[in-house]
Amino acid sequence: MEMKFFVYDSPEFRTFLKDNPHERGEVNFLNSVIEEGMAAIDVGANIGISSVAIAKKIGKRGELYSFEPVPEYFNTLKKNISSNGLENVKAYELAVTDQVGGVEFYKKGFSSGIVFEEGTEKFEVSTATLDGFLSEKEIERIDLINMDCEGSELLALEGAKETLRKNKVRIFCEIHHDFLKRLGQSIGDLVEYLQKLGFQVQSVSLNDLKVGNDFEKCEYIYAHNYK
Residue 207 pairs with which residues in a beta bridge? Predict the structure, then answer.
């Protein structure tokens, strides 16, 4: 990650995406599943690349709620939202998990999460559940959840059980196998949890945006519960 502040429609950002296949793949896949007017959530928004991409695609009729608990990233996220002229995004300095309160967080480079690694900076962040947040804000509909939460994937989704039950949601989620394992969880647990809630779950390869069922090595999953 070399770009901190960006304008989405600029030649500089297009060059950045061309040179960074990870970010390019994320943006391209999101653009393929997002529809104008959607109500969306971005968990682990970091500096805002996915948030800005989502906000641009859902348009003025859409609404985006972005969550980023690391103060440094959160401040950059807000600046990137502003510099891209977006008025359909609300940003919250919160980590999304299965509990309301606080949790120890670890930051290393551009990576951050609840899993300890050697050489990380430790600090406390505030947490929320999606069910609790949406209830408190009286938000009745969610169409899309994008997630990059460095091992908290299952915990975040467990805190969104009612949201997932009552909405037709599309979920695009980066999978961190090693971090899940350190928390005593696995991709199998996550897939099973979503399937029990009525979701069709597929693996996603960012190289060619193909979907499949190779969960043990997948970089991402895409899940939906619409007919």
Answer: none
Give just the sign of the alpha carbon dihedral 60, 41, 14, 37: negative
> Tens digit of pLDDT for each residue in 14-52?
999 999 999 999 999 999 999 999 999 999 999 999 999
On whether residue 46 sits in a domain, the answer given is yes
The residue count of the chain comes to 227
- How many domains are contained in the chain? 1
Per-residue pLDDT reduced to its tens digit, 93-118: 999 999 999 988 878 777 777 777 77
Q: What are phi and psi of 225, to 5 degrees?
A: -125, 30
Alpha carbon distance 141, 202 (integer Å): 23
Query: What is the distance between the terminal CA atoms of the chain, rounded to a whole angstrom?
Result: 38
3-state secondary structure of 72: helix
Q: CATH number for the domain including 215? A: 3.40.50.150
Give, to the nearest 10 degrees, the angle between helix 71-83 and helix 49-58. 30
Contact 187, 176 (CB under 8 A): no
- Distance (Å, whole) CA 18 – CA 2: 13
- The values of phi and psi at residue 111, to 5°, are -105, 145
Contact residues for 111 (Cβ-Cβ < 8 A; gap 6+): 150
Instruction: Give a yes or no: residue 80 inside a domain.
Output: yes
Domain that holds residue 193: 21-93+141-224
